[in-house]
Design goal:
The protein is mainly α. It has nine helices and two strands, in the order ααββααααααα. It has a two-stranded antiparallel ribbon. Helix 6 (about 135-150) runs parallel beside helix 8 and helix 7 runs parallel beside helix 9.
Amino acid sequence: MEVEDDEIECKPALPLPPNSEDPNSEYHDIYLYFKQNEKYRSESDKNNTLLQPHGNTFDFMETDFKMRIPYCGDEFKISPEFRLHHVEQFRVEKDELFKKKSEVVQKSEFPSYNKFKNLTEEPVDVNFLLGFQHIQIIELIKFCVEKCRALVMYSDNYCEWIYRFLLIAQEPLDSTISSSLNSILKYFCRAKQAIFDKDDKRLEKYNLIISTIVDCYRQCDEDIMI
């Protein structure tokens, strides 16, 4: 029998730490999670506890108040068929993109972070991306991490930009890109966790990014069930 929200047994927990709304705060991820889920945040405020989707609760200690990525449930799990097909398709797309890159002679002007934020809400410009050197791509992927951190949900256009960055990343990955991809993975898992409708159209884009990072680049420093 499904448990209604008002029937959930809530356990005592600490309130959000001060200044958690600050993007530089180590607790900012949880703040954004609550911001996205006003219903659960209100319930949490009322009962002084933290609520997760699907009626789960968890306690926390102030010294251990890090972003958690729980399993969303079988209905949200990425199918093995999708993951296997995507790995094959990704390799084909990556090869095609690098062949095209070898033909590009024009260099792209490196954007400021503010310009980058706006640009990545527009349709992806592949030629613009191909005009960057590898060292610049590393910096742009860092920009992606910053933007992911600042948002709760991600637009289709932004997901497409992220995917193109994943395609254009050179292998083997250096430690900087590996760290950035792990961060992006966590943020997309967080965004996926905040979706309650298994037919939500955003899931397809999110799953594509998650599967690419986990299956194509083997980047996952936590036991994340996707």
